[in-house]
Each structure stands twice: as C-alpha cells, then as structure tokens.
Prior knowledge:
Elements: H1 7-27, H2 34-61, H3 69-78, H4 84-90, H5 151-176, E1 180-181, E2 191-192
Antiparallel strand pairs: 1-2
Amino acid sequence: MASSMDPREVSRRKALKVAVSALVYEVGFEKAEESVLETLTEMLQSFLTELGRSCRGYAELAGRSEGMMTDVFMALVDMGQNVQSIQSHARRHTKSVFLPPAHTAAPTTLKTLQVGDRPSHPSHIPDHLPAFPDPHTYIRTLTNKAPVTEYQLVREKAASQKRDIERALTRFIAKTGETQMLFPDNTEAYPCK
Length: 193
C-alpha cells in the first residue's frame, strides 16, 4: 500500500500515525497492535478528509475561495461533533508530545584552500605571530581584461556600433512615421510602413 502512495502522502500518513499513537498513549494504553493503529489512522484520515471537504463546501457556498473558522465549526456541527469539547481537549493537562529522534550528521572537516606558498616571517617579525594569509589576498591581481587598443579592432568595433545604431533608428522611424503608399491613387493596396 505504501509503495503506490506519493512520498508526501506517506509522510502525512506517518504524522497522522504519530498523532494517533500519542492519543492512544494519553488514554492509558501502553501498547497497541500495528493493525489497530492503522485502523485508527485510517479513521482519522477519513474524518479529516471529510471535514476538509465540508469546510471547502461551506466556503464556496459563501462565495469564498478559502475557508474560515466558521466554516470549520459548521462542518463539525454538520458531522455531529461537539464543538465545545474542542476547547477543553486543547487545554488538557495530560498532553503527550512525541518528538522524532534528532538526526545528527557527523561534522565534516573542511579542507582549507591554500593558494601559492605562504612566505615565512621576515626577520623583524617575531615567530609567535600568526602566519601571513594566502598571497592572493594582499597581492594586486587584475580582475578585468585590459581594454583593446589596437587601431584596426577599435575602428571595426566603432563601425559595427555605427551600423547597428543606424539600423535601429531606421526601424524606429519606419514604425513610428507616417505610412507612405507605393501607389498613391490606390490607398488600399500595398501600404508600405
């Protein structure tokens, strides 16, 4: 059964089973058979599904796309549940909380990246001081390419940019300017824009 279910549905089902187990433990049972827990979980899931459907129905009946507390109360009353007992159940002193075991991952030791060789201390710096950082952190390194200064490449780039600008302006004027007819006496045929 669990193999054909969606992983999200399996996790919801496990959460419901934990809630049912907590309620069974609160009532006073020390143990419960797997089949009993499955049956109670199925009953709780059916109850919550029906409650959700009724709540959605009341919300849609009122012209809303999301349910409100009043819709939940109406759905509970419609299902024959005592709404007043919910408050006393929420304030009970015998609550039991089942926390899942915490997963502790083994701490991974990160390898420090060392670039280049670290220089040793000069003679005027005592040895008990920390070592210098990696050289790339304080030695000047260029982060951008040097601009192209060859005459031919600069001229080609300028010509290409000029051609692109002229083409863009021509298209802009053609789209925003007035329409010129190829045949002035026939305004319906071949408008050129």
